[in-house]
Automatic annotation (TrEMBL):
Keyword 4Fe-4S found: yes
Protein known as: Quinolinate synthase
Single GO MF annotation: 4 iron, 4 sulfur cluster binding
Pathway: Cofactor biosynthesis; NAD(+) biosynthesis; quinolinate from iminoaspartate: step 1/1
Coiled coil: none
UniProt keywords, alphabetically: 4Fe-4S, Cytoplasm, Iron, Iron-sulfur, Metal-binding, Pyridine nucleotide biosynthesis, Transferase
Function recorded in the entry: Catalyzes the condensation of iminoaspartate with dihydroxyacetone phosphate to form quinolinate.
NCBIfam families the UniProt entry points to: nadA, PRK09375.1-2
Named cofactor requirement(s): [4Fe-4S] cluster
Catalytic activities: iminosuccinate + dihydroxyacetone phosphate = quinolinate + phosphate + 2 H2O + H(+)
């Protein structure tokens, strides 16, 4: 017989104790993984948690670049991920060699990279940011210093508007956030005229223009708890809605459909992680994130800088 949800949770918690492991999960994981995790957060909070943990093993339920970041921050810990193929379309759109050529064209520029990139791209950057601190960090750079911002052009454009700074933008984007259909947003707003539209800054500016509130996954979650609105149209990966319903059980949350009316609005990479794979990786302590030492050391500097600037 298949195990019940509670049996799965108990088995995972026991394995964590046995292996001295902590489970960090992103909001885009499926409900069961979020319920099992010791800590759930956005990418900034998850990197902070990685830095703080005393566990010997970090099981990172998220995508590859997030687990890599945890490894860079904690080089002496074992960092494992349930499925090594859990990549990120945005990170893939910024290959390290092309990035090197790009930044070499503008040697006087300060290079800020969004955390959704490979360790090799981080290693070439001056500062890392996430969607929750990007505007604040960009505003701290003196006005006479020109900035390169990579790899997400949608986030970059939004940061430009918020900070009033023009930047050289790498032209990458997230396949999930680009897939939301304008028609679905309009339809939902007509059906629920009092609903607030809330969006992640990786959405296209066309969709961001409709939004009442824009922020990282954690900021969206805190917004629905502060806002007097009772209904929300959510323009980001629907995994976050699980936490929104836990925090605000009386409020209503509507997910926006993908371009062809399908629910292809969930991240195919995030969703590769399953509870079965969590159990397997805890038992075997694989697949493990192993990085080139030089890359790992170089990538630590801009991440440390971010963590110290965004306290
Ligand atoms: P957050 O930084 O808001 O967690 O976003 C991460 C991400 O991958 C969004 O697609
Ligand atoms: Fe990458 Fe987009 Fe998935 Fe976030 S939602 S992990 S940016 S592919």
């Amino acid at each position: 017989d298949p195990l019940t949800r509670d049996e799965v949770k108990n088995q995972i918690r026991l394995l964590c104790k046995e292996k001295n492991a902590v489970i960090l999960a992103h909001y885009y994981q499926d409900d069961l993984i979020q319920d099992i995790a010791h800590f759930i957060g956005d990418s900034l909070e998850l990197s902070r948690k990685a830095a703080e943990t005393e566990a010997e093993v970090i099981l990172f339920c998220g995508v590859h670049f997030m687990a890599e970041t945890a490894k860079i921050i904690c080089p002496d810990k074992k960092v494992i991920i349930p499925d090594m193929d859990a990549g990120c379309s945005l990170a893939d759109e910024c290959p390290e060699e092309d990035f090197k050529k790009f930044i070499n064209k503008y040697p006087d520029h300060y290079v800020i990279s969004y955390i959704n990139c490979s360790a090799a791209v981080k290693a070439q950057s001056d500062l890392i940011c996430t969607s929750s601190n990007a505007v604040d960090l960009v505003k701290r750079i003196p006005l006479n210093i020109p900035i390169i911002f990579a790899p997400d052009k949608n986030l970059g454009r939004w940061v430009e508007k918020q900070s009033g700074r023009k930047m050289k933008l790498w032209q990458g984007s997230c396949m999930v956030h680009e897939t939301f259909s304008e028609e679905s947003v309009i339809k939902l707003k007509l059906q629920h005229p009092k609903a607030e539209i809330i969006a992640h800054p990786e959405c296209t500016d066309q969709l961001l223009d409709y939004s009442d509130f824009i922020g990282s996954t954690s900021k969206l979650l805190s917004h629905v708890q502060i806002s007097p609105a009772e209904e929300f149209i959510v323009l980001t990966e629907p995994g976050i809605i699980h936490q929104m319903r836990i925090k605000e059980p009386k409020k209503k949350f509507f997910e926006v459909l993908g371009l062809d009316g399908c629910s292809c609005n969930s991240c195919p990479y995030m969703r590769l992680n399953t509870a079965e794979k969590v159990i397997k990786s805890l038992k075997e302590l694989t697949p493990e994130i192993i990085l080139d030492e030089e890359v790992q050391n170089k990538a630590l500097r801009p991440i440390k800088k971010m963590l110290s600037l965004s306290k």
